[in-house]
Amino acid sequence: MGSFEARKDKWLVLTDLVYLDVSADKNAKATVPVGPGIGPGPVPVEIKTEVDVSLKGAVFQLAGGYSLISDGPLKLDLLAGARFLDLDSDISVDLSALERNRKIKASESGNVWDGIVGVKGMYALNQRWSLPYYADIGTGESDFTWQVAAGVAYHAAKWVDVAFVYRHLE
């Protein structure tokens, strides 16, 4: 994850990039009832299976903005721009225990462009520490998207901030 912002007077441009590559695999055992048994009920058979799941994606955002409030401890910017979302998911289930060379695979991928509007800013606690915030809504190829973020930031230098932020994008 990373973001970059540049300002000139009351105008700003910002970009944000999130990349993810998550995968997991799991071996599991399951007891499955198979056929008629001797006595009441089917015969339980234990089978082994392997499941592999992966998710890769990226979110890229580019927006321009205008500073509505820039004096005092509270800062508030109005934003407009675009967000690109690209996701690829794969799942593979190995059922060779039931049938020789039986693997089930499924893949899904897609990407969307959405226009966004939002606000961002911060509340300065002192010269070095602040509470940044961000919120946007969007639509386009998606029905409706929204994002919020808030956290704490340390102003390490005139042009560098280090922030710890919680973000939710839906």
Helices and strands, with pairings:
Layout: E1 2-8, E2 11-36, E3 42-69, E4 74-94, E5 103-124, E6 129-140, E7 145-157, E8 160-169
Antiparallel strand pairs: 1-2, 2-3, 3-4, 4-5, 5-6, 6-7, 7-8
Molecular structure report:
This protein starts with a strand and ends with a strand. The chain has strands spanning 2-8, 11-36, 42-69, 74-94, 103-124, 129-140, 145-157, 160-169. With 170 residues, the chain is an all-beta fold.
Characteristic terms for this protein:
170 residues, single chain, 8-stranded antiparallel beta sheet, mainly beta
Strand count, sense and closure of the main sheet? 8 strands, antiparallel
Helix fraction bin? under 10%
Order of strands, widest sheet:
1-2-3-4-5-6-7-8
User: What's the gyration radius in Å?
Assistant: 25 Å
Q: Name the beta content range.
A: over 45%
Q: Span between N and C termini? A: 17 Å
Query: Helix and strand string, N-terminal first?
Result: EEEEEEEE
Strands, count:
8
Assembly category: single chain
**Runs with pLDDT <50, length 5+?**
none
Shape: elongated
